[in-house]
Amino acid sequence: MKHRKPVLDRRKAVADILKERRNALVVAGLGAPCWDIAAADESPLNFYTWGGMGGAAMIGLGLALAQPRRRVLVITGDGEMLMGLGSLATIGVQQPRNLAVIVLDNERYGETGMQLTHTRLGVELAGVAKASGFRAAGTIYSAAQLKTWIPRLHRQLGPVFAAIKVTAQPAPMVLPVRDGATLKTRFREALLGAKALE
Amino acid sequence: MRAAETKRNNRSPGTGHGSRSSADWPEDIHRVLRAQQVRQVTYVPDSGHARLIELVRADRDMRAIPLTTEEEGVALSVGAWLGGEKSVLLMQSSGSGNCINMLGMVQECRVPLPMLITMRGEWGEFNPWQVHMSLATAPALAAMGVVLRTVDSADDIGETVDAALRLAYNTCRGVAVLIAQRVIGAKQFK
Lengths: 198, 190
What we know:
The complex is a heterodimer of chains A (198) and B (190). Chain A has helices spanning 10-19, 32-41, 56-66, 78-83, 85-94, 125-131, 143-155, 180-192, and strands at residues 25-28, 46-48, 72-77, 99-105, 108-109, 115-116, 136-140, 160-165. By secondary structure, chain A is an alpha/beta fold. Chain A has one domain: 3-Layer(aba) Sandwich (Rossmann fold). Chain A starts with 9 loop residues before the first helix and ends in a 6-residue tail after the last helix. Chain B has a domain at 19-110 and 134-147 and 160-180: Rossmann fold (3-Layer(aba) Sandwich), CATH 3.40.50.970. Chain B has eight helices and eight strands, in the order ββαβαβαβααβαβαβα. Chain B has helices at residues 25-35, 50-58, 71-82, 93-96, 100-109, 131-143, 154-171, 181-184; strands spanning 8-9, 20-21, 38-43, 63-66, 86-92, 113-118, 147-151, 174-179. In chain B, helix 2 links the parallel strand 3 and strand 4 (63-66). The longest helix of chain B has 18 residues, at 154-171. Chain B is globular. The A-B interface holds A 25, 27, 47, 49, 51-56, 58-67, 84, 86-87, 89-90, 93-94, 180-181, 183-184, 187-188, 191-192, 195-196 and B 39-40, 63, 65-69, 71-85, 87, 101-102, 104-105, 108-111.
C-alpha cells in the first residue's frame, strides 16, 4: 500500500481542538503532545504525563468513569498509544460515553531520534479502535476532515477515537509542570475543590 | 480455590458477628471494599479471586473492569483518583511483573493503589513457570515503593485488606496484600 504523507500541523490541530474544550478534562501523553497542549491551553485540568508510557488511555478511562458528566480527552502520540494497544480493548468493553482518545500520529518516536513507529509501517490505530468497540474511529489527514471531526471529539457518544496524521516538523518545546504530585494535586483541587485535600 | 479445611470460628475481627467459615474471605474483602466506597475494581481474573470478582460484578455500586494486562489497572488508578474515585487492582502473582514501570507513575504522582494479589508458586505449586515471578513479586514491588503485607490465614484477610486500603488512601501510596497460596489451595493439574 502506498504511504500517504501527513500534512497537518500538530500545534494548529491541538489548538483547534482545545478551542472548543469548554470544561473538558485533558490527559496528555508524554512528549510532544504535552508541549502542544501546554502551548495551546495550559490549565490545571490538563494532566501531563512524563512517564508511564502506554498508560494515557487508561488514565483517561479511570477519569471518565469517575466523572461521567465531564468530557475526557486523551491527547497522546502514536508511540505511546502503541505501547498500550490493549487498553483500546479494555475501553471498548467499558463503553465510556464521555471519553475521546486522540492520537497525534507523526509516525515517529519523537523524543528518541524520530525512529519510525508501527503506524508508518502499516498499522492503522483507528482500525484497532473500531474493532475494539469504539463507537466512532477514524484517521484524519486533511484540514477539512479535522473540521468535521472536532465536534465529534467533544460531543459524540463515546468512546470515540481519532488518529490525526501530523507532520514530523518539530515545534518549540513548551514545558509544563513535571512534578507528578503537583500535577495530581492541582488537578484534583481544580476539579473537586476542598475535598481534594482531605 | 477454597482452603482445604473449613473452620467454624466465632472470632471475626471487624468483619461481622457469630460463626463464620474461613472460606468466606472473598466476602470479607467485598465488605471492606463497600465500606471504603471503592468504585472501580480492575482485574485480570485469577481462580483465587473468582468469588470476589463475582461479588463485585453483582454489586451495583461498583464497576468490575477486566483488563488485557495488569499494568492497565495501575494506570487506571491514576485516572480514577484524579476524578475523585477509589480503585483496587486484583491479580495473581504472575501479573505483578506486568506492573513495574507503570508503578513509577503511582509513586511519582502519589496516587493510592491497593493491589490484592493471590500467590502462585509457593505452596505445592505444580507449574514451574509460576515460581519465578512468585519469588520476585515482593522484591519487585518493594523496589517500586509499594508497601507489602502478606497474609497466610483466611481469618486475617478481611482485617489486613481493610488496613491496607486505609494506608493506601490515607497516605497516597501503592499497598499490596499478598494472599498466600496456602490459603487458596494449590491448583490441581493432575
